[in-house]
Amino acid sequence: MGFSGFPDEAFEFYEGLSADNSKAYWTAHKQVYEDAVRAPLTALMAELEPEFGAAKIFRPYRDVRFAKDKSPYKTQQGAHTEAGFYVAVDADGLMVAGGLYSPSPDQLARFRKAVDAESSGAPFAALIDDLQAAGFEIAGDRLKTRPRGVPEDHPRLDLLRHRSLYAHKGWPPEDWVGTPQALDRIRDEWRALRPLQTWAADHIG
After folding, report:
1. What is the rounded CA–CA span in Å between residue 133 and residue 127?
2. What is the CATH number of the domain that holds 16?
3. Is residue 152 classed as helix, strand or coil in its secondary structure?
4. Residue 2 within a domain
5. Among 45, 49, 75, 84, which one is least packed by beta carbons within 10 Å?
6. 0.85 exceeded by the pTM?
7. Which domain holds residue 155?
8. For residue 174, which phi and psi values (nearest 5 degrees)?
């Protein structure tokens, strides 16, 4: 079955899970999760695969072994492609993102070297400006100070502070989210994110 949107039940499910993150709630509503969340997301990823590559749908269960928060279930359902395109559903609606989420030390070093260099850093700053102009928010873990060896007047200091960097955009569960139009919207936004993913692939790996 093709993708036809995320029904209201998907967002209602996560509203309930946010209020009662328990095995009892999950067991009572598991079929809602399967039908309203996982099945539409699986169909969406299948539709996007020819252009963006195969996707991984994350497990709904949290790894609580080393966490202070022992809540057993994630309060959003996400999926991502190998190229770094991301989509998620939660109580607040629909979200898309792309970028450098959890870089290894080697990747972070290459990121900072590329942002520092004028030949690669200036185009990167320009594409970040373009994404912000297109309505994306730039987020990620950042240093409070500047990285070691970076002068305080560096033209891209704000970008160099990032230890992770991604662009994201979200929508509340408006009527169009429950229709096939959601596929077109996500595809268009992922296309807008492609320059960021391409730059990362070229300079970070």
Report:
1. 10
2. 3.30.930.20
3. coil
4. no
5. 49
6. yes
7. 8-203
8. -75, 170
